[in-house]
Amino acid sequence: MTDDKNKSIEPSVDETIKKVVRDELTNFINISGVGNKNQLEILTNFNQTDGEVLLRGKTNSFIVIGRDRIAGPLSGKGGSAHNQASSIDLVAGHGGTRPVNTVNGAKILSDKNFANDAARIYISQLCDLDKYLGIPKQFVNFTPVSKAQIQINDGRSGVGIKADTVCLVARENIKICTSHKEANSRDFSTCEGGVDIIAGIDNLNKALIPQPMVKGNNLKQLLEKILIGLQDLQTSVTNLADEQSKFNSILENHSHQIISAAVTGPPISNGQLTTINKSIINQSKYHFANMIDFEQTKFEFLVDGNEKSILSRYNRVN
User: Fold this and answer.
1) Coil, strand, or helix at residue 53?
2) How far apart are CA 268 and CA 273, in angstroms?
3) Chain-centroid distance, C-alpha 229
4) 102: which strand partners?
5) What three-state secondary structure class fits 161?
6) How, if at all, do strands 106-107 and 196-197 pair?
7) Residue-level pLDDT, tens digit, the chain, 318 residues
8) Which of the 8 DSSP states describes residue 36?
9) What does DSSP say about strands 257-259 and 262-264: parallel, antiparallel, or unpaired?
């Protein structure tokens, strides 16, 4: 009987096996994505219109140059045939974690989806940006005490950025500015807009309204005035207590002797009382002056719109 362990593989078969292994390894490398090479994954079929230019590589990331829309061809300002509604849409991860290209063998077209697409920078000449990004209504058309209206970003040009995380890094500094003198892109006068910071736009308390941000330097001045006032008040109370103690001592050491209904005994010194009365009067004047100063401080720092108000006229936060 021949020992199977000692059988040798025919050279042609051995070479075929090696070739198959090499080909499979090559195929794996070519579709695995290792080294930023091609990867086998589902690629969406973007629903491109004849008015759009699509710049796309080999992934679900692309640039759409066309007209304003946030979903299908009938959405947005472009969908309702507005003119001057150009847009540039930069998308990474079209379709998010569940991209689709076929269902039961039928080709499926995918439109833009501001909610599900993974990351986007959207630039539009004419858009309703608040609506597109789901900004809550209580943060628009609201006029706080400062009379600075929070602008509703509809029917204007806009730039929207949406992703899981957005980081802005500057090696020196970052400026976030609004302009109140220039006309906007529709050639309308601009309103006095500001900076709104809104956390949790999809889970806000309906009763919540935006609040003006606090200006640090003005708040510091106010707190310094309050602390000085408290120190002065403490000193004044201490002085009054000291004068009261002196007055009590005079009364304790003074006595009256009653003989036949006639009052005798040394009278209280007019000089002593005069000194105490002057001190009390001076403290009262000081308190009155402080009351006037406190009212002035309240007007300067706590009335909206004043130069030293601790609240920002334009910038708000929730």
Assistant:
1) strand
2) 8
3) 35
4) 107
5) strand
6) unpaired
7) 455 555 566 777 667 777 676 766 666 666 667 777 777 788 999 999 999 999 998 899 999 999 999 999 999 999 999 999 999 999 999 999 889 989 988 999 999 999 999 999 999 999 999 889 988 766 554 444 444 445 566 788 999 999 999 999 999 999 988 887 777 777 776 677 778 888 887 777 766 677 888 888 888 888 888 878 777 777 777 776 666 666 666 665 665 555 555 555 555 555 555 666 666 666 666 666 666 777 778 778 888 778 888 888 878 887
8) G
9) antiparallel
Nearest to 152 by CA among 135, 173, 169, 175: 135
**Coil/strand/helix, residue 123:** strand
Query: SS3 for 264-307, per residue?
Result: ECCCCCHHHHHHHHHHHHHHHHHHHHHHHHHHHHHHHHHCCCCC
Residues 6+ apart with CB under 8 A from 309: 215, 218, 300, 301, 302, 303
Q: Which tokens go with 153?
A: 């970003």
17/220 Cα distance (integer angstroms): 80
- For the chain, the first-to-last Cα distance in angstroms comes to 89
- The Cα–Cα gap between 51 and 54 comes to 10
Helices and strands counted in the chain (H then E)? 5, 14
157: phi then psi, degrees, rounded to nearest 5? -70, 155
Buried b (16+ CB within 10 A) or exposed e, 24-61: eeeeeeeeeeeeeeeeeeeebebebeeebeeebeeebb
Tokens encoding 259: 């003989």
